[in-house]
User: Fold this.
Amino acid sequence: MTTKLMGQPVQRVEDQRFLRGQGRYTDDVLTAPGDDVVLHAAVLRSPHAHARIVDIDVSEVLDVEGVHAVWTYEDLEGLSPAMAQPLPLLIPHPALTQGRTQYALAKDEVNYVGEAVALVVATDRYIAEDAVGLIRVDYDILPAVVGIEAAREARHLVHDDVPGNLGARLVQEVGDAPAAVAAAPHRLALDLTIERSACMPLEGRGTVARWDPDTDRLQLWTSTQSSTGVRAAVAVKLGLALGQVDVVTPDVGGGFGVKIVHPWPEELLVPLAARALGRPVKFTEDRREHFISSAHERGQVQHVEVGFDDEGRVLGLDVEFWHDHGAYTPYGLIVPIITSTQLLGPYKPGAYRVAFESLYTNTVIVTPYRGAGRPQGCFAMERTMDAIADYLGKDRTEVRAANFIQPDEFPYDHQMVFQDGRPLVYDSGDYPAMLGKLKALVGWDEFPAYQAEMAAQGRQVGIGLGCYVEGTGVGPYEGAHVHVETSGKVKVAIGLTTQGQGHQTVFAQLVADELGVKFEDVEVVSGDTRRMPYAVGTFASRAAVMSGSAVHLAAKRAKEKVLRIAADALEADEADLQIVDGVVSVKGAPDASIDLGTVSVLSNPLRYAFDEASKAATQFTVGDPGKPPVAEDDEPGLEGKDFYSPDRATFASGMHAVIVETDPQTAEITILKYAVVHDCGTVINPMIVEGQIHGGVAQGIGGSLYERMAYDSSGQLLNASFMDFLMPYVTEVPDGIAIDHLETPSPLNPLGIKGAGEAGVIPTAAAFAGAIEDAERRTRSDASITAMPISPSELYTLRQDTP
Amino acid sequence: MAEELHQIRLTVNGTAHDLRVPARRLLSDALRHDLALTGTHVGCEHGVCGACTVLLDGDPVRACLVFAVSVQGQEITTVEGLTRPDGALGPVQQAFAECHGLQCGFCTPGFLTTITAGIRDNPEPTHDEAREMIAGNLCRCTGYQNIVKAVERAAVLAREGVEGDRPGDGSELEAGQLAGDDRADDAATTGLGA
Assistant:
């Protein structure tokens, strides 16, 4: 019997092409040697954060040799009426009473530096950019609203018709939190801030389109996290039938959330140009464009009021926060809703009230970045736990343990509505056991002695921890199609996209296990709407849960058919059959066997033979002459297709701890140890899960110590390059991350899987804040860390302000 | 007014290519769009991320900071040239596969070329030297943990490899590792496959 691949660190199949330089990313499409057929697009972007467009003069561009088109908003209506309408508001919400989205090319007004104003299509990108530089725009500059404070003050408005710059206000409450806080034996209030950061995949956005007049169809390659979403949007905006649009997501050089937004203006303008010009058109975003025209995340200001008892048990938690969503709201309220619900983490406050205001500013849009509002929520909750422990003089882990949901309390209903519109009910977990593992892994109980030892040497070290729960695998659904070909090879199609998570490997593991075929005989294709037209996308740590479950179910269906046909062919009972390495045999009678390829041949009754094998399926060879060749409730071919659509999300969890040293003179912050305990239910491939954790932690370190979007008061992004926006190199991440796993399978899906993709980044800022505070407290009584990220110079300033 | 074009000969992975390009054509664009060697990736176009790193006479350079016209007559090695003549992965590539040193794969070509030169110059790097070797390249997926392991593993694999598979010093490229000089006119060496 073949070893089960579930849970094995199987090496990735996709690596073979990546390592040879044979990956196919969007910009690699249509680059055949000497191919000068494809045209290149460049976009003129607003240099102002807020301005009215008085006039656009493109006359100089028309004379540039090599320019094929130059378009502004005025041109869109004639090309496709729907293009003159604003971009879709992807996720409407009743509380989002003032949702606004931009136009594919700005109409009358621009609301952030980087907003698309005009498009040029030319023979190459160099010429297209030259031409963009020749467009003259007359702007009437308006005051810019930058930052949450300015948005709340509302001395100026981002959108004239949105009073107070307030896009939405949403309140959820369970019990009477203000009363519970007021009546509690102890009370604390915290004011907290988190800065903006961004996903920053190393491949930016990119789109290539080819209109085929011979078949009247559009072929679109785009670097997205949702092929089917782009397909639907492009069809609507270009006035095409869905069946005329094929979207292929080739290899994607990282997503982390930013590529779930769709359609980006270029995702519509490029196919529009390809159709209008009768030539393939390509747009590849450069790095500066990515900084100023793709989405950011994280920026929030929070106010927490908490009431608790002598043990540190939270009796009432009353949270208000202000969320900067940038100039438009294409992705609705997802990020602040996640913050407001996932803030609860592994805890059960007596009463909870959370209110947020989602605010307009003249900055780049804010949409999910790995963690999607959870790092902010976790920061608020964990800073609160640390403050309670400090107030009561208790160990920080004790206070957390006093508030944990206990293992026998699952499913645990928070009586709130989650980001998918469904009840916030945790399915499984074991938080006390997880805390025990973390304390052992990081050496929590031994740390005070180490701290004293270091202090004796004049060194300041501190320890901090962060606990989180992450709703993963939200619906509505994902599907999978499994096809056993007559060669015996198994072709699998999933609808969501992949951007480095190893889907080709892990889903092949699942199919090999369920179907009883060799791993190397399974090939998985993702993100191609021709292969799987019904899908949602890759976000919210949902691929393994959703597509994994769908792949498993589809493979099961294929297996059922294999056994039915094989039982007939072998004249055996289905229950007596087994499939090993692609061969169906009667248990205990290995001579009675048939390979999957032959079963596939038999599954498709033929009139015409095309090779030796297919002769076995022709009409004078098989079938009962008294019955239809394909039974009424059957269909030809050896395929299995199924969808997985869960009642609600499954809740993964984790706890991180970090030990840092802060330099007494320079305030440099050095990571001495980083430890992670993680529960993503049943693990398909531990090597890949650990890789996801490593990457998440590195991004968390960036967000805690280095990365921020530095806007000036006029709305200019001052650090829009990799020279100035500091992402971690290897020199900024610890040499080794200690990882331990806990597996509490999810009862909601057939394999017990929970999502793992975002986890590493969620509690990082919370853990660092606690650790830096702990280190600083050796020499300063008030060492509160209330804002993240924190740089050495900011820590130095804090020391001056609160000596 | 049409741009003035310059006739140049680029020698990439042992194959000579004649091109006519404008003076401002970046080496990264010439490789990717004129020669269709799309294994070299462009992540920032300002020399910080290192995704576009290629070897120029054996030394790592950022192809986005080099004009194509300026490297006439020099030997360029891209990620496509790191695969062995028989199609097997070279030691650095193999180490990345074994150590899960890549996720989305976009930054990977720059790491592979950088490390290829690194372990040629320092065949037995210490752990700290392995970290230092990759300290100029950005990766947004892996957190670098497994890339460091891959550097150490690559050094072992390269040392264990048969003599002919050892990376050359760049000035005299040896068969297999950096480029197949016995395949000078073989289009298949572009690595593009079918």
User: Anything to note?
Assistant: The CA atoms of residues 15 and 184 of chain B lie 4 Å apart. The first strand of chain B starts at residue 5 and ends at 12. The longest helix of chain B spans residues 145-160. Chain B has two domains: 8-82, 91-165.
